[in-house]
Design goal:
By secondary structure, the protein is α/β, with parallel strands linked by helices. About 35% of the residues lie in helices and about 15% in strands. The chain folds into three domains: about 10-280, Rossmann fold, CATH 3.40.50; about 305-460, Thiamin diphosphate (ThDP)-binding fold, Pyr/PP domains (Rossmann fold); about 480-630, 3-Layer(aba) Sandwich (Rossmann fold). The protein has 23 helices and 19 strands. Helix 17 links the parallel strand 12 (about 435) and strand 13.
Length: about 650
């Protein structure tokens, strides 16, 4: 009899026996494997927290108490036991469950935690507010992985929590992994965890926490956990994160304790599924597969090279040619496909862990000393280092090259991971050259240009298959756009990987009688004002197309260029992302919904041309330019 299918509320966990809890844990792992038959999803991290999730929900009532999972990609077991089991097959699909906590789905999910490190701050804020509002009986729990622990905001929160002395439980889920094996001195510190038969910080057989310094030293003259003790936390642990009996007992003992407590739980990423245990990097978010009980059966088709691969190859080639080039990444070696760089140039490869602010400032220091650092980072994660972009890179005008992966719609990862704001948050900073390749041929040239510049530069590219536009590729020159072809009727100005859709749309529009040209803008800063203004003057209608937010983006830069040149821009239509958060779904689905794929561009071009007096939907060809100039509003055509 399936326990998971009958579970209606986490409260029912309290009625289950230990063998039944262990059965439920296995059923959850089977359900997690079933997701991978349908699509790629976060896997190993969720397998590792099954028992921890069950124990926490058995001891606490999180319909009233508070829990925040950090990072949120380990939320799947909680979704399964909080009324979402029937929809788990929809996870990471358009209109389905989000792959991260989502308050819109359940009251058990308090924050959409897609970035790492903020759990302790938020949990402490919840607890402080509850206490002020006379609800001090509400418990507050933050579950944070050892990969997220080195984030700077974590230590800001620990510092504050230790001083406030509110009742707060921080559960350190230590599996010795981020996506890749963890890095840094803090990881080395955790590696020294002593193996004991009962948790340090709990007297055997008693339910009272005790300070770790009261326990006989297990490592020379130092007591393990002193780092956290010195920050004002009581350290308790280590606890076997897959032993439900000891986990539940420990949590029950700690629940009435006062003040901030750090519970150190040792887990295994991929636990319960041997292939994931042996290769936790591969099974962090693997491609679709089935499991016959003995071997993996791949279900996903091989994908063509992505922009990420093109960028990684260009970075590798630059490092091979130049010994002053170094690479800095923030725990995203695997995501940025830099494994070969790390293997062949280990002395020039620096993984800072999930510490984006430090990574950018560190790169600035290297640039100041004569190196040419490439910071390989996701667009959405670079937001966390905005102040360092301003103070340490832009203000100092240092030659740091920023390779922004996942720029644009990140597909099933959703709004926490869509890299749609970098065009805006970077365009306001002086000195930074901003580039976006129209296709795969542009990207290596842009990297070479960036590495030759005296100041900072950014290159943004999407999580997508790398297209190649059939044309004689013009050399990439600073601030120069590439005209794919001129159009007598209209122009599509593409910034970045929307170029392929623009070319396809222009080809289809030509068969309908609209002569539409295409410009590969390449640069947002400095923008090619000459080419932009000429397009505005020559064409009866202009569409700007970008895979980023419209407020302050490429289209806005085009309007600013028109204003500075004194050119009428009422025939310009800006296409991109609206002023709202875009939910998760496949990238192609989202582009279609937003009208910035080839179909959407054709539709918008025709309707805009009609509005500009150049086209009528009930005709099969374009009105002549002379006729259009007679029917268009005064000043609309130039």
């Amino acid at each position: 009899m399936s326990l998971l299918s009958q579970l209606r509320s986490p409260r029912e966990l309290r009625d289950l026996t230990l063998p039944e809890l262990e059965q439920l844990a296995e059923e959850i792992r089977v359900a997690l494997r079933s997701i991978l038959r349908l699509r790629s999803a976060h896997f190993g991290s969720n397998l590792g927290v099954v028992e921890l999730c069950l124990a926490l929900h058995r001891v606490y009532d999180f319909s009233r108490d508070r829990i925040i999972w950090d990072t949120g990609h380990q939320i799947y077991p909680q979704k399964l036991i909080t009324g979402r089991q029937s929809r788990i097959h929809t996870i990471r699909t358009k209109g389905g469950l989000m792959g991260f906590p989502n308050p819109a789905e359940s009251d058990y999910d308090l924050f959409v935690t897609g970035h790492a490190g903020c759990s302790i701050s938020c949990a402490l804020g919840l607890k402080a507010s509850d206490d002020l509002r006379g609800q001090s009986d509400r418990c507050s729990v933050a579950v944070i992985g050892d990969g997220a622990l080195p984030s700077g905001i974590v230590f800001e929160a620990l510092n504050h929590a230790g001083a406030l002395d509110n009742n707060l439980l921080v559960v350190l889920n230590d599996n010795q992994m981020s996506i890749c094996p963890r890095v840094g001195a803090l990881g080395q510190y955790l590696d020294q965890t002593p193996k004991v038969d009962h948790p340090i910080g709990l007297r055997r057989g008693e339910g009272r926490p005790q300070a770790a310094e009261d326990v006989e030293s297990l490592r020379g003259q130092k007591t393990y956990g002193s780092l956290f003790e010195n920050l004002g936390f009581r350290y308790v642990g280590p606890v076997d994160g897959h032993n439900l009996k000891s986990l539940v007992q420990c949590l029950e003992d700690l629940k009435p304790a006062r003040g901030p407590i750090l519970l150190h739980v040792m887990t295994e990423k991929g636990h319960g599924f041997e292939p994931a245990v042996k290769d936790p990097v591969k099974f962090h978010a693997p491609a679709r597969f089935d499991w016959d009980g003995e071997e993996i059966i791949p279900l996903a088709k091989g994908a063509p090279p992505a922009y990420t691969n093109v960028a990684a190859d260009a970075i590798y080639d630059a490092m091979r040619r130049r010994d002053d080039v170094v690479v800095v990444t923030a725990a995203m070696c695997e995501g940025n496909k830099l494994q070969k760089v790390r293997a062949d140039f280990p002395e020039r490869f620096f993984d800072t862990g999930i510490c984006e602010s430090h990574a950018v400032a560190f790169a600035a220091g290297m640039a100041k000393s004569g190196s040419r650092p490439i910071v390989a980072i996701y667009s959405t994660f670079l937001q966390r280092a905005y102040d360092q972009l301003f103070q340490e890179v832009s203000l100092q005008n240092l030659p740091v090259t920023l390779c922004l992966d996942r720029a644009g719609l990140a597909g099933p990862d959703g709004p926490t991971h869509h890299g749609v704001f970098d065009t805006v948050y970077m365009r306001s900073l002086p000195n930074i050259a901003m580039m976006a390749p129209g296709d795969a041929a542009d990207l290596p040239q842009m990297l070479d240009l960036a590495l030759s510049m005296p100041g900072p530069a950014s290159i943004r590219y999407p999580k997508a298959d790398a297209e190649r536009i059939d044309r004689p590729v013009a050399p990439v020159e600073l601030g120069k756009a590439e005209v794919i072809r001129w159009g007598n009727d209209g122009m599509l100005l593409a910034y970045g990987a929307t170029l392929g859709a623009c070319v396809a749309a222009a080809d289809r529009l030509r068969t309908d009688g609209l002569d539409v040209g295409v410009v590969n803008a390449r640069f947002l800063k400095p923008i090619d004002r000459g080419t932009i203004v000429e397009a505005l003057r020559r064409a009866s209608f202009v569409l700007t197309v970008e895979e980023g937010t419209l407020e302050g983006g490429f289209g806005s830069a085009v309007l600013e260029a028109a204003n500075q040149a004194g050119v009428d821009a009422r025939h310009v239509l800006r296409l991109g992302l609206p002023d709202r958060y875009v939910e998760h779904g496949e990238r192609d689905e989202l582009l279609h919904d937003l009208g910035i794929d080839a179909d959407g561009l054709c539709e918008r071009a025709c309707s805009w041309a009609e509005r500009c007096g150049l086209w009528r939907q009930d005709t099969v060809r374009v009105e002549s330019m002379a006729r259009a100039s007679e029917t268009a509003p005064a000043g609309l055509l130039s």
